Amino acid sequence: MSVVAPADRSGLEVRGLTVAYGPHGAPEVVRDVDLRIRPGETLGLVGESGSGKSTLALAVLRALPDPGRIVRGEVHLGGDDVRALGASDLRALWRRRVKWVPQNPLPSMNPSLTVGRQLAEALDPDRPRRADPAEIDEVLASVGLPDPPRVRRAYPFELSGGQQQRILIAMALLARPELLILDEPTTNLDVTTEAAILELIRERVRNRETAVLYVSHSLGVVAQLCDAVQVLYAGDAVERAPADAFYRRPLHPYAAGLLAAVPTLDRPDGRRAPVRGMEGRIPSPADRPAGCPFAPRCPLVVDACRSDRPPRVDAGGDGAAPTRSHASAGKRSRAARSRRSHRSTPPRSAAPPTDRRSSSPTPSRNGSR
Q: 105 with 111: CB under 8 angstroms?
């Protein structure tokens, strides 16, 4: 199968993706996940550590470490079946069409090559030595790095973590990829540098036909950056919704618990809202309950949760994907009826909506790390 740049970018589509680490019969760490990211859309993939977020991202890339393997499912990018690609076509996909930015940039950079040489390879993988130094300096300046000639001549270990991360993001975006995967790219940075990196990502991705998968456990960061949110728990995709709907009214009990655990400072009375943690922890794949994996921690658990895997509940017309939860089935139905009623009845006042990416986010979305 030959990989060519498609004329019509259709984004990323994942159907029923299941991943295991080990031989046949090993526990599945990601189960039957569906995921769709349109060109120009940024999807936030959230959940506690151990939910399977990074494993899912690596499976999409077909870059799982041994003994990881895709058990079943489909991954399509721009119309191409990624699982069917041979080794040479897969390398071409990684070089041109898919880029990955991890949380720790240094291991992803070559310590024996200068920053300028590595950026030159990103500009022209086939002829890096012909790259114009002035063009490289322009790229470095565009990501906010001072003294571009000095940075161009430096080796990665001579730069700070924030500088390395800016360079890695610049390298990823130079190829104008169809898919950009950002795996906790700001976790190891201070708050000021994190804000600068997030603004850089927004500016560089804006007006480009790039599908972005942003892996994070920080709901505050996801609120600033993403158009939609998908929640993973113990390898299951339990909810997906447009970002505004997710932060306004989460439907799965786990999603609601994640939001309740985020501190906020913008209550109308000026007081800090109480932070409510969730008892228990994510089960290991080998100890996953027979029914809903969240049942032992769920405040809304019913008998069916302990014996049957939750069904996929209809999205209710808000652009969300199905939600897996017995408890949220009725809640989803009520929310859908409420939204339909809301759309059919004009509001009494037309206050302008708050821009969720502005410096004054709505109260329910002003999360911090």
A: no
DSSP of 222-245, one letter per residue? HHHH-SEEEEEETTEEEEEEEHHH
According to the model, what pLDDT value does residue 326 have? Answer: 57
Residues 6+ apart with CB under 8 A from 168: 101, 105, 108, 109, 185
Contact (CB, 8 A) for 237 and 53? no
Residues 249-270 have pLDDT tens digits of 999 999 999 998 887 766 666 6
Evaluate the omega torsion of the peptide bond into residue 133 and state whether it is cis, within 30 degrees of 0: no
Q: Compute φ and ψ for 260, nearest 5 degrees.
A: -65, -20
End-to-end CA distance of the chain: 44
Q: What is the mean pLDDT of residues 47-58?
A: 94
Beta strand pairing call for 228-233 and 68-77: unpaired
In this prediction the pTM is 0.81
Going by C-alpha positions, the residue among 357, 335, 319, 198 that lies closest to residue 256 is: 335
The amino acid sitting at 361 is P
Question: Left, alpha or beta for 317 (phi > 0: left; psi -120 to 50: alpha)?
Answer: left
Give 3-state DSSP helix, strand, coil % of the chain, rounded to 5. 40, 20, 45
Strand stretches in the chain, DSSP E: 12-21, 28-37, 42-46, 68-77, 80-81, 98-101, 179-183, 211-215, 228-233, 236-242, 312-313, 323-324
Kindly tell me the sign of the dihedral angle through the C-alpha atoms of 350, 44, 224, 312: positive
Q: Which two tokens stand for residue 355?
A: 């821009």
Q: DSSP class of residue 270?
A: S
Query: What tokens appear for 149 in the block?
Result: 């000639």
Strand order in the sheet with 68-77: 28-37, 12-21, 68-77, 80-81
Closest CA to 33 of 22, 43, 23: 43
Q: Which residue has the tokens 């939204």?
A: 339
Share of the chain above pLDDT 70, in %: 79
